Amino acid sequence: MVGPNAQFYTSSHPLDAELRCSGLETAKTIKVGKRVWIGGGAIIMPGVTIGDDAIIGAGAVVTKNVAAKTVVAGNPAKPIRQLI
User: Fold this and answer.
1) How far apart (Å, rounded) are the C-alpha atoms in residues 59 and 71?
2) Average pLDDT over every residue of 35-60
3) What is the mean pLDDT of residues 28-46?
């Protein structure tokens, strides 16, 4: 399930200013497991994997992988609860 205004960003760019200004961009896959719930307004950054049964809180900014059966929230998103 994906709430309203959730955003999935797959594009990335170099940190080096000269390369970035050349227009070089890359794409990194986002992987979402089974039975995941992503709250409204959440932002999922490039290259992130979200494990099965995870819950992403509304407005969370997910910059790192989320383990299965984990609830994350905040900016940046941090684990706040483990599900059974």
Assistant:
1) 13
2) 98
3) 98
Cα separation, 28 vs 24, whole angstroms: 14
Q: Tell whether domain 7-82 is in CATH 2.160.10.10.
A: yes
Beta bridge partners of 50: 32, 66
Q: What is the pLDDT of residues 48-77, one digit of tens each?
A: 999 999 999 999 999 999 999 999 999 999
Distance in angstroms (rounded) separating the CA atoms of residues 33 and 70: 12
**What whole-number distance in Å separates Cα of residue 45 and Cα of residue 11?**
9
For the chain, domain boundaries: 7-82
CA distances from 74 to 24, 27, 41, 51, 60 (A): 30, 24, 11, 18, 5
Strand-pairing partners, residue 11, are 27
pLDDT, the chain, mean: 96
Beta bridge partners of 21: none
| Catalytic annotation, residues | 13
